[in-house]
Write a structure and sequence with these properties.
Arc Repressor Mutant, subunit A; elongated; alpha/beta; 3 domains; 43% helix; D-Maltodextrin-Binding Protein, domain 2; 14 strands; 13 helices
Length: 337
């Protein structure tokens, strides 16, 4: 068997296997045969003279050598990919169109700085923006990339974590001074409540505080599909905003134009992802944008949370990376093993 210890492709196969914990899942991601993955791991072990995995363990476990190898080879592989990308083509060589779907409220108030920044790096890639397409639209090819709330489940979608959405109940200081501060979800029966009801996410039916969860019983509800209109209505003192995304109101909280209500109670945060079809993932311009956008979005959304940390208590963030790439068919098959 060939000694592949100096083969970076072999180490990439090992890293993928270590992360998925499954020969079949690793093979599907890398479009290899499981036997080829197994032979590659064996060749690496022969080359270094030590085992990387405990071969008789179920589920798969790394040896101490394997754990150290993962930590040390990952930075090398990232640097190698960056090096190859630089050699393969500079930014001028990347060109074409990308059709991107985002939520309407985000497109209206937050998207343009991202697109401007990306255009400065890759001036020959044009971004066409569409609004509010869903998972099945991405799978059907109605856009190249889409931002989704919740982890995708349809087959053969490739996705990256872009951070979470936090949804807060808020009101204007003027409203609170005249109508009072709702302390508990049951208090909302005495207030006019503005709630989101649109295509981006399901309507809020419960609020949570820690491990507690309470079903809502609202009497005066104004439901809207336009989150920016809800924000304006709440800023104007017309009622309580039930579930406004932090991305829409973080400056209002910092400036004191809005204040949190019902301390500790909120809709559960939801993880969000940048998603494309497996076919579109093969286009380099799509991969470049997806990887860049996921990283910048996560940095930005984490920054919103940091900005309001002294104003409203938020659940701890998960330790999720915006650099990991997942495939729905692989994730589903891995979860069954």
């Amino acid at each position: 068997m060939t000694n592949r210890v100096d083969d970076l492709r072999a180490w990439q196969i090992f890293i993928t296997y270590a992360k998925t914990g499954s020969l079949s899942a690793c093979a599907e991601i890398l479009e290899l045969e499981p036997s080829s993955v197994s032979r590659t791991i064996a060749a690496l072990e022969k080359g270094i003279g030590q085992e990387l995995v405990l071969h008789n363990s179920r589920p798969m476990q790394l040896t101490e050598v394997g754990i150290r190898a993962v930590k040390r080879i990952e930075p090398i592989l990232r640097a190698h990919r960056k090096f190859l990308d630089t050699l393969a083509s500079d930014s001028a060589a990347l060109q074409g169109h990308i059709r991107l779907s985002v939520a309407p409220g985000f497109a209206t108030r937050r998207l343009m700085p991202f697109l401007t920044e990306f255009a400065n790096i890759y001036p020959k890639i044009d971004i066409d923006v569409v609004i509010g397409l869903k998972e099945h639209d991405i799978a059907m090819g109605r856009c190249d990339l889409g931002v989704l709330t919740g982890e995708p489940t349809l087959p053969d979608l490739v996705y990256m974590y872009r951070g979470r959405n936090v949804y807060l109940p808020v009101a204007s200081p003027q409203y609170v001074s005249t109508r009072g501060m709702p302390i508990h979800p049951s208090d909302l029966r005495e207030h006019t409540v503005y709630a989101y009801s649109g295509p981006v996410r399901q309507e809020t039916k419960t609020l949570c505080r820690g491990n507690e969860e309470i079903s809502l019983n609202l009497e005066r509800v104004v439901r809207m599909a336009d989150i920016t209109t809800i924000r304006q209505a709440v800023l104007a003192g017309n009622g309580v905003g039930l579930d406004i995304p932090l991305v829409q109101i973080w400056e209002d909280l910092v400036a004191g134009r809005l204040v949190p209500v019902m301390p500790g109670w909120m809709r559960r945060p939801e993880d969000c992802f940048i998603v494309c079809s497996k076919d579109n993932w093969h286009f380099r311009r799509v991969r470049i944008f997806q990887q860049w956008f996921a990283k910048r979005m996560k940095e930005t959304f984490d920054g919103y949370e940091d900005a309001v940390a002294g104003i409203v208590g938020l659940p701890a963030r998960k330790d999720c990376s915006s650099e990991d790439v997942f495939n729905t068919s692989v994730r589903k098959s891995s979860s069954k093993k």
